[in-house]
From TrEMBL:
Keyword Ribonucleoprotein set for record: yes
GO cellular component terms listed in the entry, alphabetical order: ribonucleoprotein complex; ribosome
Lineage, broadest ranks: Bacteria, Candidatus Curtissiibacteriota
GO terms (BP aspect): translation
HAMAP family hit by this protein: Ribosomal_uL29
Protein name: Large ribosomal subunit protein uL29
Biased composition (Basic and acidic residues): 72-95
InterPro entries (alphabetical): Ribosomal_uL29, Ribosomal_uL29_sf
Species, as recorded: Candidatus Curtissbacteria bacterium GW2011_GWA1_41_11
């Protein structure tokens, strides 16, 4: 996979990336079968597809991690009204 194609995949959404992984896995399987039957001489094609699949899965993982970390930060930034009331009750009970 060329650097330009890799950069294009970084801006794609997760569903498109999952579809691309699925397509590459099918293509890799076909390539391996053809290699075993002796129809193709390109032994490096399946290895390159395997690397491409790993790269795309890495992008998916990075996007999911970024998405969950953003939602966690948003939850931490929002103070809930219940926690304030509980601290007030605890401080009054202690005094």
């Amino acid at each position: 996979m060329k650097k330009k194609n890799f950069d294009d995949l970084k801006v794609a959404d997760i569903e498109q990336l999952r579809k691309k992984v699925s397509d590459l896995q099918k293509a890799k399987t076909n390539e391996l079968l053809e290699l075993k039957m002796g129809k193709t001489k390109n032994v490096h094609a399946a290895k390159a597809m395997k690397r491409d699949i790993a790269k795309i899965k890495t992008i998916i993982r990075m996007k999911l991690t970024a998405k969950t970390s953003i939602t966690k930060t948003e939850k931490e930034d929002k103070p809930s009204g219940d926690s304030v009331n509980k601290t007030e009750v605890k401080s009054h009970a202690a005094s």
